[in-house]
Amino acid sequence: MALPQTQALGVGMVGYAFMGAAHSQAWRTAPQVFDLPLRPVLAALCGRDRAAAEAAAQRYGFADVETDWRALLERDDVQLIDVCTPGDSHAEISIAALEAGKHVLCEKPLANSVAEAEAMTAAAVRAQARGVRSMVGFNYRRVPALALARELIASDRVGEIRHVRVSYLQDWLADPAFPLTWRLQQEHAGSGALGDLGSHVVDLAQYLTGQLISGVSGVSATFVPERPIPGGDGRTGPVTVDDAVAFTARLESGALATFEATRFATGRKNALRIEVNGSRGSLAFDLERLNELEFCDPADDPATQGFRRILVTEPGHPYLSAWWPPGHVLGWEHTFTHQVRDLVTAIAKGTDPEPSFADGLQVQHVLHAVWASAAQDSRWTPV
Amino acid sequence: MALPQTQALGVGMVGYAFMGAAHSQAWRTAPQVFDLPLRPVLAALCGRDRAAAEAAAQRYGFADVETDWRALLERDDVQLIDVCTPGDSHAEISIAALEAGKHVLCEKPLANSVAEAEAMTAAAVRAQARGVRSMVGFNYRRVPALALARELIASDRVGEIRHVRVSYLQDWLADPAFPLTWRLQQEHAGSGALGDLGSHVVDLAQYLTGQLISGVSGVSATFVPERPIPGGDGRTGPVTVDDAVAFTARLESGALATFEATRFATGRKNALRIEVNGSRGSLAFDLERLNELEFCDPADDPATQGFRRILVTEPGHPYLSAWWPPGHVLGWEHTFTHQVRDLVTAIAKGTDPEPSFADGLQVQHVLHAVWASAAQDSRWTPV
Amino acid sequence: MALPQTQALGVGMVGYAFMGAAHSQAWRTAPQVFDLPLRPVLAALCGRDRAAAEAAAQRYGFADVETDWRALLERDDVQLIDVCTPGDSHAEISIAALEAGKHVLCEKPLANSVAEAEAMTAAAVRAQARGVRSMVGFNYRRVPALALARELIASDRVGEIRHVRVSYLQDWLADPAFPLTWRLQQEHAGSGALGDLGSHVVDLAQYLTGQLISGVSGVSATFVPERPIPGGDGRTGPVTVDDAVAFTARLESGALATFEATRFATGRKNALRIEVNGSRGSLAFDLERLNELEFCDPADDPATQGFRRILVTEPGHPYLSAWWPPGHVLGWEHTFTHQVRDLVTAIAKGTDPEPSFADGLQVQHVLHAVWASAAQDSRWTPV
Amino acid sequence: MALPQTQALGVGMVGYAFMGAAHSQAWRTAPQVFDLPLRPVLAALCGRDRAAAEAAAQRYGFADVETDWRALLERDDVQLIDVCTPGDSHAEISIAALEAGKHVLCEKPLANSVAEAEAMTAAAVRAQARGVRSMVGFNYRRVPALALARELIASDRVGEIRHVRVSYLQDWLADPAFPLTWRLQQEHAGSGALGDLGSHVVDLAQYLTGQLISGVSGVSATFVPERPIPGGDGRTGPVTVDDAVAFTARLESGALATFEATRFATGRKNALRIEVNGSRGSLAFDLERLNELEFCDPADDPATQGFRRILVTEPGHPYLSAWWPPGHVLGWEHTFTHQVRDLVTAIAKGTDPEPSFADGLQVQHVLHAVWASAAQDSRWTPV
Fold it and tell me: What interface predicted TM-score (ipTM) does this complex get?
């Protein structure tokens, strides 16, 4: 059987935990579902523990392993580095990869600080001049319902935006016995709910509305200040990040926005909710029902006006023509498959994928402003 | 037919618009549904326009009319004044009534300013010493689902409270052609969404949690600064109140709260939503579905845990034993009927009904702090 | 105060339990909310136990009591008899009242048998010739959301109807310890879920679609055949009615319908659900959320198509202009208030109110066909 | 890199349309997510059109193609035949494959007639004696929410079952202009909604309850009797299958069930809804929200009783420990991945996977009884 071949795009992945699993499944599934202009090849996976890395490589379908990410950069069979590590190594790996001429897909948040994000963005700009592409993994832009929301706003179905109302609610820290992992330590995670969850919703709010956040007033809380040290025989250590954060904001146009991110919302598992109210329509979404978008069109005749529950599985909906018949719903991981499609397409076309490192930096500026405001009596802080 | 008679409680009502209609229906329905210790008698309705007042009196079932509210205070057949006027006359009428020895039910918000609310509260305290009772009409405390929520929190089914998330969304100002009524003028309405909608949700948040708000950081917006003057031949005038307000807050215990009140949420008609997350459970409510309360109990076995949709129509639920069989839902106006029951019961027992004028004053303090914070760069403002 | 007076309509009510309470509240509330052409006066309430009847009369606001319903028919101050008794006395009372020249409002189901319903309908026709009106109390026609559904179907927003899918689910018999009340005895109740719940949904299906049911195939079940006799010291007696019934049906146009009525649907309290699918649209309703109607319009652009959740509280919706602002929801009992309005209006205008006794008879024919089919191997039975 | 290797399981797939795409993705994803005891190898894909088959093979990751399915049976690198063709070839291919010693996964419905299904089942029994396994692809058994429902019923959380209420609603035939494809022709499809959708819900109802259907009474309809012939220049031909079917049924225990399957439910895209009411609890499910199961437990304290919305994404839920963190929802296609896991596990263990061909035959018996009843005045027909 002589099958036609598209050009390979060798992928080197750093990190193989939660995000590594999701990304590798996307790399394998995307070419089965979409017509990709390049053929992803899972060239090598990198992890410091060779045995664990080899087990992950076999499971995820990578052909080889490395134990030092620098070695990935020297491989000719790798054209793209997929950075799936914790935030404190994003800057170093991404910058080196871009300088080595490798395209980079970096997980969110882009970095743990504005300074790191600035350096990464500068590297991305330099690389771009050489045709090397970079993307930050705000995968929720690729939820079909949110991509549809973006289209509806962009095509003026929502009109002048008055309100954006966002919350990202999880509950995995509600139990005070949950241990003091690296995610609860400022030096590793940068921040808590702010960076992990807040970065998603800040990016989404700006992406959906096509507007930047111009200023914020923030407040944060750490409800459980001490937690058991893992393997610490009952000793506890201080939690040095925020358990929850809330902030008000204004968009460029004067719209009023509210944001909340928390890991203490008992019973809410992954409730990223966003509602946008405009002069010509309203939209509402909840990630726990990610195949649905609610849309209210005040131009409907008054007798039958109401929020429409759109099941975003029609062929005309973003990304859907490649999937199943109407009503056959997608899952969370499909966002990564869509991300792969868009990234590979941009690389093949020689265009810049979105969201860019500059977009990631802009989010970082907003998060920093929230943090600064919270530290200064919630004073209004321009971004 | 010689029927047993309970003692009469003569009601004099000032104002007969939206709230007058709702209150008078409650006065007539309450004794038909509940065993009341006093028999409400609709003695007289007061309005400046005699013809209009007489029409209203006939429709609502009042026996007589007055055109000056002071005349109501002199009537022997009136023991209670029901104040249903706009906020700018609440203080004068209520204080005079209390001084005349009449019980007072005053619509919310208690007043248009802290100073007025303080004077009213002082009058209420003086009257109380003489056995004269007063109550402010935060009727949503009497939504059965919210009364149940209060019980669940009070009985520790929610545990230590981490988050309160409240929004009160309406959309009747979304159209810029809506005219410049008194509700949009600061001198009459005091404020906009803040006082009208915000007072409800501030009271509810404090009532449900049993905690006071200790500080706030606020922001407000007036999206449509000029509107057509009614009968003004196309001329416009300035809107001098807020169209929308948002604020973050802390409760005494350190819980983090977010609030939003707006009349610009296209498609949301009366969406007062409140969610409380605690260490032992969570509650969620939406006034557009006022017969339902959602409750998540993390003590449920993990396989079947989830938010329970409680249809609050069981005989054991607050106020429900007097109504219909399970599943036969109540409406918005029933909150006023419940209010009448509780008020009449307190008067008969010689106890103080809740919420008191002092409660109304406390809400006014919070609203003032929000206003002050919004005026000062959202700076954190203690209450 | 000389108030303008409309002519009185004296009401005599027979029975004062659940339905008596609901009806009397409606008689008192309707003139407060609607502009009625006649003024209902609660003249006399009839019950065999004088003390109980007097207590009920006082609570519900009736001026007098009778202990024999025949006495009501002789009173000059009574123009209308409101029959709120169990089904086995509907025929006798209604026929006598009509012959006495009194208008009749008779609770549903019209009767316990086709023969009784036929006699009642004949009496109604005779009375009609003398200007005496009659109505059967299928109150759910007056749920605003269902009245809206009727309008949408009548104005061809649903197109050619393909499917009607109805279930009426309650659970108050799920517990086998529930006692053997009269409702579970064939000689008093006629039937079980079939007559009590089934009559409602058969009427609704025909009312909404404007079509009659042409044939049925039925099956029924009695899950708990013996129940404790009230005050029977532990002895049990046989349940002689159906606990649940299900049937398929065809409408005149060929549409396919499914029906189910049960008192054994654990957790469902009053879930009357109806869905209609047509060539141009679909409608869905659940009585537990009676202020909402779902409507899908396939003419909406495909990208934003979906079931609209219509909050049926807008001024343009049926009955709503007389009530509260948008989003201020109504309750179950309001259906009776609307029924009073429509009945009083018809009486004043000299037109025949709907649903007529003939409509009630037609429902009885359908129920009988279901019963006959269930008794004969579910054989298809024309109506 | 020397990775540990599990033994290969060579897969030969016949057919590569909708089901072929879903199955092949599952074969590729399952080993990435689950610890499988055998390693699926996509050996060859079979299609009559070589060019199309090669394109499909490349896209889906198959190493080779065949144009005659018999050739697959002769390949040593194929141990399992995955039958994804229309129903009229299921019997021939499956029987030949089993006789050739290949395990078989056959798409549902098992066959177009009882006779075919009997022959297949006999072949499966013979093959089983030689250690050759067979499975019919009722993939919805592997929706985690439905697998959880099965567990809850099996562990007596629902008690004695009273009602099963099932509908499978789609709308792709609502437009009369939809062409006359093979699915609308009896000779190819066997039946319409009955076999395509009805087979799913009959299997589910029996699987969830652990009971067989003992008898049925059915009715069917063909709303649009003529449709345009594809490429027929406007000519039309007769639709020879049912557009919709409805039937009542009893389970072995006496529970009452209602079923409906249609392709004319405007606005419903893939609404497989199932509700089970029992003496100790109730369950409700809708495939359009496949990550959710509703469960009502009457043992909950009455004040907080209600249907719990279980987000079936917890590690303790069926299949979920291998996937993502709580709240990160799955999609429709994951049911096939779960099916692969269970099938491969059974093959490796030498046990019989479920559902068996005998299960498929039993469903066929029920469908036949429905058809027979519908043809005989809906007369009750034992299965």
Answer: 0.95
Pairing of strands A307-311, C256-262: unpaired
Would you list which residues of chain D are within 8 Å, Cβ to Cβ, of chain C? 162-163, 165, 167, 169, 171, 174, 176, 217-219, 221, 223, 244, 246-248, 250, 254, 256, 258, 260, 262, 264-268, 277-282, 296, 298, 305-307, 373, 377-380
Domain residue extents for chain D: 8-140, 142-330+363-375
CA-to-CA dists, residue A301 to A92, A296, A298, C153, angstroms:
56, 12, 8, 15
How far apart (Å, rounded) are the C-alpha atoms in residues C283 and C296? 7
The tens-digit pLDDT sequence of chain A (383 residues) is 554 568 999 999 999 999 999 999 999 999 999 999 999 999 999 999 999 999 999 999 999 999 999 999 999 999 999 999 998 999 999 999 999 999 999 999 999 999 999 999 999 999 999 999 999 999 999 999 999 999 999 999 999 999 999 999 999 999 999 999 989 999 888 899 999 999 999 999 999 999 999 999 999 999 999 999 998 888 999 999 999 999 999 999 999 999 999 999 999 999 999 999 999 999 999 999 999 999 999 999 999 999 999 999 999 999 999 999 999 999 999 999 999 999 999 999 999 999 999 999 999 999 999 999 999 999 999 99
Task: Please give the angle made by the CA atoms of C215, C217 and C223, to the nearest 5 degrees.
Answer: 140
DSSP A208-276: HHT--EEEEEEEEE-S--EEEPTTSTT-EEE--S-SEEEEEEEETTS-EEEEEEES--TT-SSEEEEEE
Q: Where are the alpha helices (DSSP H) in chain C?
A: 18-33, 50-60, 69-73, 90-99, 114-128, 144-154, 186-189, 193, 199-209, 334-349, 357-375
Bridge-based pairing state of the strands C244-251 and C213-221: antiparallel
Give me B106's structure tokens.
């005053």
At B245, the amino acid letter reads V
Number of H helices, E strands in chain D: 11, 17
Distance, in Å, from the CA atom of A210 to the CA atom of A278, rounded to the nearest integer, reads: 13
pTM (two decimals): 0.97
In D31-40, which positions are buried (b, 16+ CB within 10 angstroms) versus exposed (e)? Answer: bbbbebebeb
Output the six-digit token pair for B146: 């919210």
Q: Calculate helix-pair angle for C199-209, C357-375, nearest 10 degrees.
A: 120
Q: Which residues of A touch C302 (CB under 8 A)?
A: 314, 316
Residue to test with chain B: of C173, C314, C332, most B Cβ within 10 A: C332
Report how far residue B245's alpha carbon sits from residue A163's, in angstroms, rounded to the nearest whole number: 10
Q: Which of B342, B364, B363, B362 is nearest to B351 (CA)?
A: B342
CB contact under 8 A, D324 and A333: yes
CATH topology of domain D8-140: Rossmann fold (3.40.50)
Average confidence (pLDDT) over B260-269: 98
Give the chains touching B; criterion: ≥3 Cβ pairs < 8 Å: A, C, D
Per-residue pLDDT reduced to its tens digit, D80-96: 999 999 989 999 999 99
Q: Which of B163, B218, B378 sits opposite A244 (nearest CB)?
A: B163
- Please state, as a whole number, how many other Cβ atoms lie within 10 Å of the Cβ of residue C358: 20
Burial of C299 (0-12, 13-18, 19+ CB in 10 A): exposed
Q: Do domains B8-140 and B142-330+363-375 have the same CATH topology?
A: no
SS3 at position D217: strand
Q: What 3 state SS string does A322-363 have?
A: HCCCCCCCCCCCHHHHHHHHHHHHHHHHCCCCCCCHHHHHHH
Which class does domain B142-330+363-375 fall in? alpha beta
* Contact between chains at A309 and C311 (C-beta distance less than 8 A): no
C-beta atoms of B256 and A246 within 8 A: yes
Name which of A162, A218, A266 is nearest B296 (Cβ-Cβ).
A266
